[in-house]
Design a protein that fits this description.
By secondary structure, the protein is of the alpha/beta class. The chain has 6 helices and 13 strands. It comes from Streptomyces rameus. Residues 3-227 form the Nucleotidyl transferase domain.
């Protein structure tokens, strides 16, 4: 099985931690970088090949990971000369990828079964599978519904339930048909295009542990929780 890890971003929201290190290499706990945890998880799940899309400080990632043999994987790299969005790097890789593969951000902590995501994607027949997670958003204001300048409904500080993308996808290579290599392509654009042509993505709902390390508060939480969750995150790795 083949996975593509997206690790080319600048990690602006996580500064100052990412001033000298690419975000996937910021340390979690005392021993591990985020990217190391992800690679160990992928290897334990049966993935034997991985392509890492690198950009900002990418040579540090290349030096840290090497050929992946320390995790029992074969790792190669794709370099972004300019930002290409979430899905754009895949267009330059298209001929190097199998018909179905996993795509994921390189900065998440989760006990998601990556192999099962890819299995579910293959069985669904969909062009794209999105791993989803339930989030509850609390609105700190009274919410008004208006019609023709009249208030017709009111809810005091409601909570709204959503399913959000976890940053982990199963993808079929054919889903990239029609896009131009070298041009940016965002996840949002791909999803909207699939909906427009009535070829919708498949949802893989997950309710385990998931943390997207996008901000300093998230990073602090990851470090605070890692010791108690290490056996969960690195089981079998």
């Amino acid at each position: 099985m083949h996975a593509v890890i997206l690790a080319g971003g600048k990690g602006v929201r996580l500064r100052p931690y990412t001033t000298a290190l690419p975000k996937p290499l910021v340390p979690i706990g005392d021993q591990h970088a985020i990217l190391e945890i992800v690679l160990r998880q992928l290897s334990a799940a049966g993935f034997d090949r991985c392509t890492i899309a690198i950009g900002h400080l990418g040579e540090i990632i290349r030096a840290y990971v090497g050929d992946g043999s320390q995790w029992g994987m074969s790792v190669d790299y794709a370099t972004e000369e300019s930002p290409l969005g979430t899905m754009g790097p895949l267009l330059n890789l298209r001929d190097r990828l199998p018909e179905t593969f996993l795509v994921m951000n390189g900065d998440i902590l989760t006990d998601l079964d990556y192999a099962d995501v890819l299995r579910s994607h293959r069985e669904s027949g969909a062009p794209l599978t999105i791993a989803t997670y339930a989030r509850k958003v609390h609105i700190d204001f009274g919410v008004l519904t208006t019609d023709a300048s009249k208030v017709v409904a009111f809810t005091e500080k409601p909570s709204m339930d959503y399913r959000v993308s976890m940053g982990v996808y199963g993808l079929s290579r054919s889903a990239l048909d029609g896009y131009t290599a070298g041009l940016p392509l965002g996840f949002d654009e791909l999803v909207l295009d699939l909906l427009r042509i009535q070829n919708p993505p498949h949802a893989y709902d997950f309710d385990g542990y998931w943390l997207d390390i996008g901000r300093p508060d998230d990073y602090d939480r990851a470090n605070a929780e890692f010791t108690s969750r290490k056996s969960l995150l690195l089981k079998g790795a």
